[in-house]
C-alpha cells in the first residue's frame, strides 16, 4: 500500500471515528435533553394535578370515588387526555375502561408501594414509546411528623410519539451530516497527502538520480518544517558524497596512470634485460656452478617481471575501457587443444572435448586462449594432478546457446575463507603468502575477459575433492561486427560456491596465475611459456 493511500485511509478513519463519535455524543445529549424536558413537565403536571384533586375526595375511597378520581386526573393532559390508573389496596379504576395498562410492570408497582417518591419509567411496547409515572398519595402525620402512605396509588401513561419524532429527525440530520463530513475529510486527506508526498517524491527522484551517478543532484528547500530539514540534510550529504567520490576518482585515475606509466616505462629495459638473460642462459652451461645459478635466477626473475608488467598493462587497459572484442566464428574444441599444445600441456592435462566441428561459435579467439590458459596454469600450479579441461554446451531459455568450459584439479580444494576472494587482484591465500611464481593477476585478467564476452566465471569445491573453475560464454551466431567495445556489455560478477557441486557451472583456484595474450601456433620455448 502506497504512502498516499495510507495517508488517505488514515485521515478517513480519523474522520469516520470523529464524526461517528461526535454524532453519537450529540445524539445522546440531544435525546436526553428532549426526553428529560418532556418527562419533567409531565411529572410536575401530574404531581400538581394529583395533589390538587386529592383533598376533594373522601378517604378511604370507594370504587366510585376511585373512578371519579381517575377521570379527574386524566383531564390534566395538555394536548390529549391522560391514561390514568388509580388503585387502593385491592380495588382500582382507570380513565379508559377496558385498558389493561400493559406498560405498567409489576416491578414498578412494587416500587411505588414501597417508596414515598414519584417513580417513572420509559417503556417501548409494540414499537411505541411511552412514559409511565407512578406516585403514592401520602398525608402528613400529626404535629408535622413524617408523611405516611395513604395506600392510594396513581399511575399515568403518556405516549411519546412527538418526542420520538424529534429523536428520529435528529438521527436523520446526523446521518445526512456524516456523508459531507466524510467527503470533506477525504479532500483534506488528499490535500495533506499531496503536501507531504511532494517533497518525499522529490527526495525519491533525487536519490534515484544519485544512484544513477548524477552526484550533482540537489533538492529545492522550502519552508522550515521537518521535511525541509530532511531536504537540507540530503543536500549536505549529497555534496559531501560528491566531493568524496570526486577525490576517490581523482586518486584512482592517478593510481591507474601511475601503474600504466610505470609498466610502460619498464617494458623497454625489460626487453633489453630479457635479451641479455637469453644470451646468459645459452652460456650458463660453461660457467661455474655459483655463476650459473645466479644467471638462471636472474633469468627466471626477469621473466616473472616481464609477465607482471604485461599483466599490469592488460589490467590498466581494462580499467580504462580500452579493450575490445574481435569476434570470429571458430571451432571451440580445436581452439582449446591449440591452447594446451602451445604451452606444452597436452600430455599434462586431461581433456573432455567435443569432436572437431561439433561446437562452433563467435568468440574472441585470443581472449578465449587467455581465459583457458590462466585457469589451467592456476590448476597446475596450485592444485594437484589430475587436472582436467572439459568443454560442453547448454541452451538457456533466456540467454540462448552457451559454451561451458570447466577446469578441475585433484588437489585439496579452496579454503572457505579464500573462496570469496579468488578473483581479486593480487590476492593470495594465507598459506601462499610466501613468494610464489604467480603474480596474483591471472584470475582477475581471466575474469575481465569473460566479462567482455558477457559471460560468467564461477569458483567452487568439488564434493570429491579439488577446485573447479567454470566459465560460461554466450555463443553468438548473429552477423555483428567483429569489433565490439566492452562498454556495451554488463559486468557480471564472478561467483564462488563452497557447497556441493551439482552442475557443471562451477570452478576457481587459490592463487591466480597469468598467461599473456599469445598468438596461435606452436611455441618453441614451451618451458618459458609455462613459467609465465
3D structure, described in words:
This protein is of the alpha+beta class. The protein is 49% helix and 18% strand. It has ten helices and 15 strands. It has a six-stranded mixed sheet. It has a five-stranded antiparallel sheet with strand order 2-1-5-4-3, sandwiched between helices. It has a two-stranded antiparallel ribbon with strand order 6-14. The longest helix is centred in the middle third of the chain and has 58 residues, at 226-283. Mean pLDDT is 77; it is low at 430-435, 480-491 and 498-532.
Question: What level of helicity do the residues show?
Answer: 40-55%
Number of helices: 10
Which overall shape is indicated by the principal axes computed on the Cα atoms? rod-shaped
User: How are the strands of the largest sheet arranged?
Assistant: 8-10-11-13-12-15
Q: What class would the helix/strand composition place it in?
A: alpha+beta
Distance between the termini: 60 Å
- The topology string of helices and strands comes to HHEEHEEEHHHEEHEEHEEHEEEEH
Low-confidence stretches: 430-435, 480-491, 498-532
- Report the biggest beta sheet as strand number plus sense, adding barrel if it closes: 6 strands, mixed
The whole-angstrom Rg is: 51 Å
Compact summary:
The chain is of the alpha+beta class and 532 residues long. The chain contains 10 helices and 15 strands.
Secondary structure layout plus pairing:
Elements: H1 3-53, H2 63-74, E1 83-88, E2 91-94, H3 106-114, E3 119-125, E4 128-139, E5 148-159, H4 161-211, H5 226-283, H6 289-320, E6 324-326, E7 328-331, H7 332-342, E8 349-352, E9 360-363, H8 365-382, E10 387-396, E11 400-408, H9 442-452, E12 456-461, E13 467-474, E14 483-485, E15 495-497, H10 526-531
Parallel strand pairs: 8-10, 12-15
Antiparallel strand pairs: 1-2, 1-5, 3-4, 4-5, 6-14, 7-9, 10-11, 11-13, 12-13
Helix pairs in contact: 1-4, 4-5, 5-6, 6-9, 7-8, 8-9
Amino acid at each position: 500500500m502506497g504512502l498516499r493511500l495510507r495517508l488517505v485511509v488514515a485521515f478517513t478513519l480519523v474522520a469516520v471515528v470523529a464524526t461517528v463519535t461526535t454524532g453519537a455524543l450529540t445524539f445522546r445529549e440531544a435525546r436526553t435533553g428532549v426526553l428529560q424536558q418532556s418527562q419533567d413537565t409531565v411529572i410536575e403536571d401530574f404531581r400538581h394535578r394529583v395533589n390538587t384533586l386529592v383533598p376533594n375526595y373522601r378517604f378511604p375511597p370507594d370504587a366510585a370515588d376511585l373512578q371519579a378520581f381517575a377521570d379527574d386526573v386524566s383531564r390534566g393532559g395538555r394536548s390529549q387526555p391522560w391514561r390514568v390508573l388509580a388503585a387502593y389496596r385491592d380495588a382500582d379504576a382507570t380513565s379508559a375502561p377496558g385498558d389493561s395498562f400493559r406498560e405498567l410492570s409489576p416491578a414498578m408497582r412494587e416500587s411505588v408501594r414501597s417508596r414515598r417518591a414519584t417513580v417513572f419509567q420509559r417503556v417501548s411496547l409494540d414499537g411505541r414509546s411511552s412514559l409511565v409515572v407512578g406516585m403514592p398519595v401520602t398525608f402528613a402525620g400529626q404535629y408535622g411528623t413524617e408523611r405516611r402512605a395513604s395506600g392510594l396509588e396513581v399511575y399515568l401513561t403518556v405516549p411519546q410519539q412527538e418526542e420520538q419524532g424529534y429523536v428520529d429527525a435528529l438521527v436523520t440530520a446526523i446521518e445526512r451530516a456524516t456523508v459531507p463530513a466524510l467527503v470533506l475529510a477525504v479532500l483534506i486527506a488528499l490535500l495533506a497527502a499531496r503536501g507531504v508526498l511532494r517533497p518525499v517524491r522529490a527526495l525519491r527522484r533525487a536519490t534515484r538520480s544519485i544512484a544513477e551517478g548524477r552526484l550533482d543532484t540537489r533538492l529545492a528547500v522550502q519552508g522550515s518544517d521537518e521535511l525541509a530539514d530532511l531536504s537540507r540534510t540530503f543536500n549536505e550529504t549529497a555534496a559531501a558524497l560528491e566531493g568524496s567520490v570526486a577525490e576517490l576518482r581523482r586518486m584512482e585515475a592517478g593510481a591507474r596512470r601511475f601503474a600504466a606509466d610505470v609498466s610502460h616505462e619498464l617494458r623497454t629495459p625489460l626487453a633489453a634485460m630479457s635479451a641479455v638473460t637469453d644470451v646468459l642462459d645459452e652460456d650458463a652451461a660453461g660457467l661455474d656452478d655459483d655463476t650459473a645459478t645466479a644467471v638462471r635466477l636472474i633469468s627466471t626473475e626477469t621473466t616473472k617481471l616481464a609477465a607482471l608488467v604485461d599483466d599490469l598493462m592488460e589490467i590498466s587497459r581494462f580499467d580504462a575501457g580500452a579493450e575490445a572484442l574481435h569476434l570470429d566464428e571458430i571451432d571451440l574444441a580445436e581452439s582449446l587443444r591449440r591452447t594446451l599444445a602451445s604451452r606444452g600441456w597436452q600430455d599434462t592435462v586431461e581433456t573432455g572435448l567435443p569432436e572437431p566441428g561439433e561446437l562452433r561459435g563467435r568468440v574472441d579467439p585470443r581472449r578465449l586462449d587467455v581465459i583457458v590458459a590462466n585457469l589451467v596454469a592456476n590448476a597446475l600450479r596450485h592444485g594437484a594432478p589430475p587436472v582436467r579441461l572439459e568443454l560442453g554446451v547448454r541452451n538457456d531459455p533466456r540467454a540462448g546457446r552457451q559454451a561451458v568450459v570447466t577446469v578441475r584439479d585433484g588437489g585439496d580444494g579452496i579454503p572457505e575463507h579464500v573462496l570469496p576472494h579468488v578473483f581479486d587482484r593480487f590476492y593470495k591465500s594465507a598459506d601462499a603468502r610466501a613468494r610464489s611464481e604467480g603474480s596474483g593477476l591471472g584470475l582477475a585478467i581471466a575474469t575481465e575477459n569473460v566479462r567482455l564476452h558477457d559471460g560468467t566465471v564461477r569458483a567452487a569445491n568439488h564434493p570429491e575433492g579439488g577446485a573447479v573453475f567454470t566459465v560460461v560464454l554466450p555463443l553468438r551466431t548473429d552477423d555483428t561486427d567483429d569489433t565490439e567495445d566492452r562498454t556495451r556489455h554488463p559486468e557480471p560478477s564472478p561467483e564462488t560456491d563452497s557447497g556441493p557441486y551439482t552442475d557443471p557451472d562451477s570452478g576457481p583456484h587459490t592463487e591466480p596465475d597469468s598467461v599473456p595474450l599469445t598468438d596461435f601456433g606452436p611455441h618453441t620455448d614451451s618451458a618459458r611459456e609455462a613459467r609465465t
